[in-house]
Amino acid sequence: IRPKIDDTIHHLKTQYGVTKFAGMGYCWGAWMIAKYSAVDACEIVCGVSFHPGWRAEDVFHGPGSGAKMADPIHVPQLVLSAIDDPTWIHPGGQVDTTLETKPFPSKVRLFADVNHGWVNRGDLIDPVVDKAFHEAWDVEAIPFLQWHLQ
């Protein structure tokens, strides 16, 4: 997928003059953002992972690999986990602990009242899901992106 990301960034730079990019993904899309955030020529200034499916790394590289995905990351991350996401991607878990050692600010937040997938497929009629959805976007993601893309 990296060639497609690189081609898209090149197109946006050359055709539209875009100078800064952020990456954002839901579930396994968040896994791709984390992987791209770790490449040496990473062209995004930050990554946002909504209910991250970083455990996909365990499928490709064995148990425990997902928890180590933050090790090579080069750019700030906002990681928004659900209660049923692995504990290693919750605040205080291995991902959070690793990101805290980096020379850039990152944040890991747990949404303890909702399940994996609440941002892109949650039932917004449920007031608990609706509140978590708006906190994920309005309180966390939008300010994080505005800060890093300014």
UniProtKB/TrEMBL annotation:
Annotated GO MF terms: hydrolase activity
Upper taxonomic lineage: Eukaryota, Sar, Stramenopiles, Oomycota, Saprolegniomycetes
Domain of life assignment: Eukaryota
Ranges of residues in domain Dienelactone hydrolase: 3-138
A Pfam family: DLH
Name by which UniProt lists this protein: Dienelactone hydrolase domain-containing protein
Signal peptide range in chain numbering: none
InterPro entries: AB_hydrolase_fold, Dienelactn_hydro
